[in-house]
Design brief:
single chain, alpha+beta, Cathepsin B, Chain A, eight-stranded mixed sheet
């Protein structure tokens, strides 16, 4: 299996997307997958196949990539040119192509044009549709994201271990962090714990009997003999974590009986990096590249994406100049507030001054740095609206999907 590392030659500059109705889930998804250089590289490498097969889905995504491609000279650009807001693209045709492909190939399920859909399902349908191109052999795009777990069953009663055939295990396009126990994710509060869960997580199934001694777990009595260990048998260039439990909370709240107290979402904690060892004991490091958040309810919810993208020329210089002006203005206001001895006002202004000083320090460091990663930034994509996220990727109760790219 060949893994593709983060490649600066396939970076896409920030751009907004039109929303003609209920496409925020698709817009957030497209922003996230195009934040993966390995995914963009796959699109470019199969351009001939798309054209030969008349595949409009792959061609449409490639058109967006070419329109906003940063180019191979991205790392050599300076930050002295004026900052310009990004352009807007329309990808509504992507949805129509997914619908057409799934209908013509007899795939089950579809995505509706004027209905808010689940980004979890949209992601699966998008990748399956790309792999359905006649001239593409195998699950090319799925392989960029799919992991596979190996199942081992251990019985404490007879002390025997049963290994499931890993070749028969299906590929999982996302690692569901609440796949079998929604409460488990609440306890994942460190990078080490998250990595351990992904690599190997243990379950006590209450509906499984040992193949040898026929013992069965009894959760009520605390008789937990049979354990299932899921270890990672296959890793991908991009790892996607799904925090599905909060979507389940929305679902339960939507169909709860009148008067029933609403359940609250829990913070979906995730690390900024993941590390693994391959079969040759070589360290594999992954960094977060995108985060999809879901707000509101199931019927009137809204999706946004936070994505790692190259900072446009002039972005750092623009933020630096604005922060310096804001700091000067804040210092003047503090002096005025001190004369009136307005302590709450002074404290508020001092906090603002501290924040501006932090921005100045950070941007001056970025401008003087030779590290390519310092030319990147996290942007919030809310359809056509784009804002810079100075706090980067932050765990919160609205987190739904998190994307990591091998670096």
């Amino acid at each position: 299996m060949s893994l593709t590392k983060f490649n600066y030659d396939f970076l896409i500059q920030p751009f907004g997307l039109h929303n003609s109705g209920s496409l925020c889930y698709l817009n957030s998804l497209i922003q996230s997958v195009l934040s993966s250089p390995s995914f963009v590289q796959l699109l470019y490498s199969h351009e001939d196949e798309f054209q030969h097969a008349g595949d409009n889905l792959g061609t449409r995504l490639l058109t967006v990539c070419k329109q906003f491609d940063c180019g191979p000279d991205f790392l050599n650009t300076t930050d002295s040119s004026p900052f310009r807001q990004s352009q807007i693209a329309d990808v509504s045709g992507v949805l129509r192509e997914i619908q057409r492909i799934r209908t013509s190939s007899g795939m089950g399920g579809t995505l509706h044009t004027h209905t808010q859909e689940d980004v979890f399902e949209g992601f699966k349908f998008l990748i399956e549709s790309l792999d359905s191109t006649d001239s593409i052999d195998g699950e090319v795009f799925l392989s960029n994201f799919a992991v596979r777990h190996r199942l081992t069953i251990h019985c404490g009663a007879c002390n025997k271990q049963h290994n499931a055939d890993k070749s028969s295990a299906p590929s999982e396009i996302m690692v569901n962090m609440a796949d079998r126990d929604p409460l488990l994710q609440k306890n994942l509060e460190s990078q080490e714990m998250v990595e351990k869960y992904i690599k190997t997580h243990m379950l006590y199934p209450d509906d499984y009997r040992c193949e040898d001694c026929n013992v069965k777990n009894n959760q009520a009595l605390g008789e937990l003999y049979v354990k299932q260990f899921y270890s990672l048998a296959r890793i991908s260039s991009v790892i996607v974590l799904s925090f599905h439990h909060n979507h389940s909370v929305l679902l339960e709240n939507a169909f709860a009986r009148p008067g029933t107290p609403k359940k609250e979402r829990t913070v979906a904690w995730f690390p900024q990096e993941l590390t693994f060892l391959d079969v040759g004991k070589k360290l594999l490091k992954y960094k977060i590249i995108a985060q999809i958040e879901q707000y509101g309810s199931l019927s009137s919810g809204h999706y946004i994406a936070k994505c790692l993208r190259p900072r446009p020329p002039g972005h750092s210089q623009n933020r630096l100049q604005n922060a310096k002006k804001a700091l000067q203005d804040t210092v003047m206001r503090i002096q005025i507030a001190e004369k009136s001895q307005d302590r709450s006002r002074i404290e508020h202004l001092q906090n603002r001054a501290t924040k501006m000083a932090g921005i100045i320090k950070d941007e001056e460091r970025r401008l003087s740095s030779n590290d390519p990663w310092d030319k990147m930034g996290v942007f919030r994509f809310d359809d056509r609206a784009i804002t810079y996220e100075s706090n980067g990727f932050t765990p919160n109760e609205n987190t739904y999907l998190v994307f990591y790219q091998l670096v």
